[in-house]
Amino acid sequence: MEEVNVTLTVNGKEHNIKVPSDERLLDTLRDRLHLTGVKEGCSIGECGACTVVLDGKAVNSCMVYTFQLDGSEVLTVEGLEIDGQLDPLQEAFIDHQAVQCGFCTPGMLMSAKALLNEKPDPDREEIKTAIEGNLCRCTGYQQIIEAIESVVKIDRSE
Amino acid sequence: MIEFEALKANSLDEAIDILADKKNEVKMVAGGTDMLVQIHHESDDLKEMKYLLDISAISGLDVIEDNGEYLRLGALVTHSEIMDSVLINEKFPILQKAAEVIGSTQIRNRGTVGGNVNNASPAADLVTALIALDASVVLHSSHGKRELPLSEFITGPYCTDRKEDEIMTEVKVPYIQDEYYDCYQKVKRRQAVAIARINLAVITKVKDNKFNDIRVAFGSATPTATRFKEIEKELAGADLSAIDYEQLAEKTSEEMVGITGERWSTPYKRPVVGNLLKRALQSIVKEVQ
Asked: Based on the domain organization, do A142 and A111 belong to the same domain?
């Protein structure tokens, strides 16, 4: 299979890589860059476990080919922590016990991150819409929604 | 496994050249929300594919533009961009109502107008609204440009009139003069990431408390999204406060079965189309009052 040169910035670091035509962003992140926080669930865009922030928007990394992304910027769950400091969303997920098995968590966090980047003070319905493409089979969503809401409240109080 | 060579077009001319050269061996991709699923499932439709042409970087195909008489909706416009557009919000709120029930946030961020139209799923949410709006599509190829109504472009479930050397560049949506009301309905198994069992777009003007220029388009009820002309005739000039909803529901079901014949899903869809139209009309009547 033909290979394509792609320059991709992931979590602030630029990578010049050569990828086969059918390599999905999901494969590049997990197998090439070893960012295994990105999870593969359904592979057809229904579960959201592979959600990353691509050029500011939440997307399913299983439904994008890396060859399409020359010059793009990607943020994964590994990029949320800065200098050992967890992102407020990560802290909130821990505090609200919004994690059980943990498989959906990176995707949930990235959907929430994209939402807050675009709109720092979403209401509950907007939070639900932001994570409507992320399946969680453990928590029942309540704790996740509350965790995201709590970060909004922190921001409001500042 | 489907093997293919990746190609990238940076301009419309480049894409047209590649399409003219590779013809049936090339498939196009932009958002990828349908194409990558088809490739993952090794769809039979991709048997001849040797090249996958990424058109997402072609400039000019992401326009949302007021052209005086119509709205230009570029093939690369995403569903999220439709939802965020001030122009669409003002002129065609029904397009936003259709866009916001597509897939999930992630899918709406990637999926495009061109993809929704060209995939030609009978359940495509945007298509039903575009059919109600009498939209046309614009296609380009090495032979030039052509334009045809969307209702003629989509020829069957997952089938279009697009020739293998053509690329759809935009959808044209004619403006409706005067004030009008609309309602979009979607029946689905769950709230999000759900394919429409049936969707419905109703657009109407209201004059002297009567429906005027009413359009009723159903998706997923017939092989392609279509306007129910008999029902439209029935409703044209009808008084808002004197509608026999039960009779109307019955006639709606009859019109559907007249097109599809009895199918395995008919016992389910027969009452649903009627009730859905009733719900849409009642919501419009409520809005008018």
From this structure: yes
Q: Assign residue A122 the CATH number of its domain.
A: 1.10.150.120
User: Tens digit of pLDDT for each residue in B95-107?
Assistant: 999 999 999 999 9
One domain for residues A75 and A92: no
CATH code for the domain defined by B5-54 = 3.30.43
Question: Which of 48-77 (A) contact B at CB < 8 A?
Answer: 48, 51, 57-60, 62-65, 67-68, 70
Same domain for A7 and A74, yes or no, is yes
Helix H or strand E segment including B270: helix B266-288
Phi first, then psi, for residue A157 (nearest 5°) are -75, -20
Where do the structural domains in chain B lie, given as residue ranges?
5-54, 64-174, 181-288
Q: How far is B164 from chain A (nearest CA, A)?
A: 22
Q: How far is CA A78 from CA A15, A38, A88, A91, A95, in A?
A: 16, 9, 14, 14, 19
Which pLDDT band, with edges at 50, 70 and 90, does A156 fall under?
low
pLDDT, tens only, B159-179: 999 999 999 999 999 999 888
The ipTM (two decimal places) reads: 0.96
